[in-house]
Design goal:
single chain, 191 residues, mainly alpha, two-stranded antiparallel ribbon, 2 strands, elongated
């Protein structure tokens, strides 16, 4: 009996070279899934499974979407810390979990910024630390950005954060102004 749950097909045979040339995650070759997962959990909200599959979905994208079947079938060959193939449904679940966590993290971050919980300097520190972790993850997976692209992304984020900080200050000041007005009205009612 063939132990491969996905026996050789013409499609699989034709893509062997592509699989062998895939060079992501080589810096964690030899690391266990658990070790990679612990590393990520200390720094992000994503799991090793979600990280690997998000990267693969980005790298193996077609005009019609990510190649879920291909990714799932070849997961252990493409990512050294993944131990077994996944079904297309499992790949889709991990991809959706990644998207959901990124959106929730973004919403949480922006709420913290908009409600005035953080100062602009604290927000700057958070962004710097976050960008350092993101760069490190890209480096580990073997992805590199052109310096111009990296600077462009940082400039866009800085501009967004500047506008966010200014808006938060306006909002906080308008709240303080309306609270002061209410206090003045209560004081005049007491007289």
């Amino acid at each position: 009996m063939d132990s491969d749950p996905y026996p050789l097909t013409p499609d699989k045979d034709d893509r062997t070279e592509e699989i062998n040339k895939y060079q992501k995650f080589k810096k964690v070759d030899g690391a266990t899934y658990l070790k990679v997962n612990v590393f990520l959990r200390k720094r992000t909200y994503i799991t090793a499974r979600e990280w690997a599959i998000a990267r693969l979905c980005s790298d193996f994208k077609t005009p019609y979407g990510a190649e879920m079947t291909f990714i799932g079938q070849h997961l252990p060959e493409l990512v050294p810390f993944m131990e077994e193939p996944y079904s297309p449904q499992a790949v889709n679940q991990a991809r959706n979990a990644f998207k959901r966590k990124v959106r929730k993290s973004g919403a949480t971050f922006f709420y913290g910024a908009m409600c005035g919980f953080f100062t602009l300097d604290e927000l700057d520190d958070i962004l710097f630390e976050s960008s350092e972790i993101a760069r490190f993850l890209l480096e580990i997976e073997g992805t590199s950005l052109a310096i111009d692209d990296e600077l462009d992304i940082e400039d866009k984020i800085t501009e967004i954060m500047r506008k966010l900080g200014e808006s938060a200050n306006v909002l906080l000041n308008s709240r303080k102004g309306s609270e002061d007005d209410e206090d003045d009205e209560e004081d005049s009612d007491d007289e």
